[in-house]
# Entry
Amino acid sequence: MQEYNIDCRGYVLGRLSTKVAKLLLQGNKVNLFNAEELVISGHLKSIYGKYKHHIELQDKANPEHSPYWSRRPDFFVKRIVRGMLPYKKATGKAAYSRLKVYIGVPENFKDVKYSEIEAKKEESVFETCISIKELSGKLGYKI
# Structure
């Protein structure tokens, strides 16, 4: 088992999430730092509309049974990685428990060496993109 420490600045969310999910399923520990700096590529209105719709979904009979999407950047990223894991099975639950996501860099990880992951970066995206920090702010999270 290996531990990966990844600085998320400039990575595309979906591309990085697939790599992280693979690492978790292989039995590795993964720490994601600066989760608010990840970007989602695409048109801003459609991205905002999609996640606004996710947050507003409610079961009419019992709203407590509705899916929950957090507006906080670290929980938001963790939920997206969870969607790429078989989290209802034992292997997926174990993999999900090995994932830690942080806003910024905590004090006890200041001197850690970051691992490089081969995933698409913001510079290679041809469309517009929005950071998780901006999206969370638009969805109502006070940063």
The longest strand covers residues 3-7. The chain has one domain: 3-139.
